[in-house]
Design a protein that fits this description.
The protein has helices at residues 4-17, 19-22, 26-43, 45-51, 55-63, 71-110, 115-121, 126-144, 146-160, 164-183, 190-197, 203-228, 244-251, 254-269, 271-278, 282-303, 315-318, 324-343, 345-356, 360-370, 376-386, 408-419, 429-438, 442-448, 450-467. It has 468 residues and is mainly alpha-helical.
């Protein structure tokens, strides 16, 4: 069972990649893999946890004073109290964040909050829009975080590009740009926030040392895509008629649209500050924003009586638009990785990596490549546990200098763990969210944008090493 679990996971990833060929939805595959892995963990627990001396299991038994209990009871207590429920809580936090973010963006969009942004980005030139979307994603993700920025820009993109074939290209660029932008900001991604709050890297050091590598990571794909994706002189097809929702928007006071916009964006932008002050999960801040939007829009529609069918824009109605298959896909992938974490396969791989490779930069680069498949948050958290921060002193060796606060290992890891998630579309929360929103298949992204992501990833690393 122990070695069969990674095989099942890899086969599941392959099935997701071949979704168009096997005609099975990726969400169903992800859920099947998730359930299978946890069943294998339960029925193979004697081998996986007891006979292999799983350190987390042994520590749990010792801490809870279960040494004299039957082994079966020890396993049940561990799997429920230490394994499944805590991981389910972590995954639920991510799912709530995604759901609330999607709903907030949809509310702001339906009430005309993104009109100003979409008008400033509107152009008929496909190549010009490519650069505008890419650079906007790059800087927005540093301010909001890459997932929230991608969700916002997808909403804007839908107003600018009516053709779905063209929109998939821009949406894929948003994934690359948002992850690149998230790597140089301490609040740009969950992993960078983890390294920042953990004391592994300081904010100014990260910005000053990773901005240029991250920018190169974006520019390389953009330059290639500029010549490759769109023919010279091609123009976007423009939307000529207002939709029914747009007609309602015109009747909403401009002041109300502005307030709705700032409530929505603030609830996303202040997530890192909220976490730092309260130490509560990120989704709580987004949930607060959703509550404020709910109260404000209900009061607004109570005063505006001339908008017919305003119920279409109320939050209970808009909440039905949340894409459940995408949420199921998120759940399946994240809980599958959690099963491998509980089973010890991820720890084994990390130990093999650390013992066979001594060069710190190489470990960072390989970890980034692995994050294209494995959740980068779990990967970085495991890495932080494997390599504690070294106190700077005159007696430390040259090798230890890589692991001090703001050391080269942590700095490059921040870049690699985030941008490495762009290699495959399922390698980051940003990619998975955009994948669900725009119905982009694994194969479509792999054929067209994985090579661009790899080139950008390598180019950024080379620049970082040149600057080090």
């Amino acid at each position: 069972m122990y070695y069969a679990m990674p095989v099942v996971f890899i086969l599941g990833i392959v099935a997701i990649a071949l979704e168009d060929k096997i005609k099975v939805n990726k969400s169903a595959t992800a859920l099947f893999v998730c359930i299978t892995l946890w069943l294998m963990l339960v029925f193979g627990s004697q081998d996986i946890l007891v006979e292999r001396q799983n350190p987390d299991f042994l520590q749990f038994v010792k801490q809870t004073e279960l040494e004299n209990f039957p082994v079966k009871d020890q396993i049940v207590r561990y799997l429920t109290e230490k394994a499944f429920v805590p991981h389910l809580g972590d995954v639920a936090q991510t799912l709530f964040f995604v759901m609330c973010s999607l709903l907030i963006v949809n509310i702001v969009d339906k009430h005309g909050g993104f009109m100003a942004i979409s008008r400033s980005l509107r152009t008929e030139n496909k190549r010009k829009l490519l650069w505008m979307i890419g650079l906007s994603s790059f800087f927005f993700s540093a301010l909001l975080d890459n997932l929230a920025a991608a969700i916002v820009l997808i909403a804007v993109l839908r107003k600018l590009v009516p053709d779905h074939t063209d929109r998939m290209k821009y949406a894929s660029i948003i994934i690359l740009a948002a992850n690149a932008g998230g790597s140089w900001s301490p609040i740009g991604d969950v992993t960078t926030l983890l390294l920042w709050t953990g004391g592994n890297i300081t904010a100014w050091h990260q910005i000053s040392h990773l901005f240029l590598p991250a920018l190169v990571n974006l520019l390389v794909p953009l330059i290639i895509a500029d010549f490759w994706l769109f023919k010279k002189g091609t123009k976007l097809r423009q939307i000529s008629n207002l939709s029914a929702d747009d007609i309602y928007i015109e009747r909403i006071p401009n002041r109300s649209r502005i307030i709705i916009f700032w409530i929505g964006i603030s609830s996303l932008a202040f997530v890192p500050i909220f976490q730092t002050i309260t130490h509560l999960p990120a989704f709580m801040c987004v949930l607060i924003g959703l509550v404020f939007l709910w109260i404000y829009t209900d009061l607004m529609y109570g005063q505006i009586n001339d908008i017919r069918e305003s119920d279409k824009l109320r939050i209970p109605t808009l909440s039905r638009s949340v894409d459940l298959p995408t949420i199921f896909f998120f759940f399946g992938i994240l809980m599958s990785v959690a099963a491998l974490n509980v089973g010890g396969q991820l720890s084994l791989f990390a130990d093999i990596l650390s013992t066979s490779i001594k060069e710190p930069y190489t470990i960072s680069i390989i970890s980034g490549a692995i994050s294209s498949v494995v959740d980068n948050v779990a990967l970085v958290a495991a890495t932080m546990g494997m390599y504690p921060i070294v106190e700077a002193s005159a007696a430390m060796t040259p090798h230890m200098q890589y692991f001090v606060t703001d050391g080269g290992f942590w700095t490059l890891l921040a870049y690699c763990a985030v941008t490495g998630g762009s290699i495959f579309i399922i390698g980051s929360a940003t990619g998975v969210a955009v994948m669900g929103l725009e119905k982009i298949s694994f194969g479509y992204f792999f054929k067209r944008f994985t090579p661009l992501a790899v080139l950008g990833y390598i180019a950024g690393i080379l620049l970082f090493l040149a600057m080090a």
